[in-house]
Amino acid sequence: MSRLSETDALELCRRADLHELGRLAHTETLRRHPGPVRTYIVDRNINYTNICSGGCVFCNFSRSAGHAEGYVLSYEELSAKISEMVALGGRQILLQGGMHPELTFDWYLTLLRRLKRDYPQVHVHGFSPPEIVHFSKQFGRSVPQILTDLREAGLDTIPGGGAEILVDHVRKQLSPGKCSSDQWLGVMAEAHRLGMRTTATMMFGHVETLEDRIEHLSRLRQLQDQTHGFTAFICWTFQPTGTKLVEKFGDDGDGTMNLAGVQDYLRMLAVSRLFLDNFDNLQASWVTQGPAVGQVALHFGANDFGSLMLEENVVASAGTTYRLTERQLRRLIEEAGFVPARRDCLYHVVEN
Q1: Which long-range contacts (CB under 8 A, 24 or more apart) does 183-188 make?
Q2: Which of 64, 153, 295, 300 is deepest in the core (most CB within 10 A)?
Q3: Domain count within the chain
Q4: pLDDT tens by residue, 314-325
């Protein structure tokens, strides 16, 4: 089968019958993952600080330096969160924070060393590309040097956060203080060259166009052709409640937003499965779409149900607070017609 072009992908986004698109995506998923197993991971998203200089207008979670609600977690607080996760069978932490203007590089390295000392069995998936670029600027070291030092201290893999839409005119509206598209991709390319695996993400349904979404996917596919370092792709819709982005561009602003609903999400997920032909794994985003849509996503291109998400703060700050127990998550996968299985960060099944 010939590879989908950007024009093909746009046509699917605009005109394809939703059910037929889902069928095509599911057929491709079954070709890659023919067995009945659909995976998930038990992990915890730990935001070590909410102090950030990024200025993202879609984020209700961050606080500026000196704000009364700003925080930096102590090692003891981090340790307590990880101990709780381990007791519940968790194997991974997703460690992300803001672009803090005052923490030292030694703070981050000491954090990783202590985590690996105290929890050697826990996989550390942390520090998205905007954080890495921030470290490079803040501490006067190249991105490869930053990545090498973090890896030696205990960082295992890098999450795909901060991608939003990898088109700079969109990023300037969303995240004026974050890294550019080229810088985001550059961090991932350097990580892959060092042998580190990463994930890729997309947050859509705000001020971007369909063309912007497909450009985003195309840039991910191009890098994956070169490095084969991405383990998975995860897309989700912008959660608008109370955000500055809605105030600026939404119903009370200039009306240029295109908020995405459930059908938009399923269509984008299916197109992503067909277009990203060099990505093995696509996650369902039940955390933003809800458990029922997560089930449908397993028939629209997703082969993974994502994380049990023992803790989530960023999406919750925009008013979306879906929560599941592991028993409920497994039952949802079963009711969708599949066999649930725990996995690790590299998508190896660790327990059925």
Answers
A1: 183/129, 183/133, 184/129, 184/130, 184/133, 185/219, 185/223, 186/143, 187/129, 187/132, 187/133, 187/143, 187/147, 187/158, 188/129, 188/158, 188/160, 188/223, 188/227, 188/229, 188/230
A2: 300
A3: 1
A4: 444 434 445 688
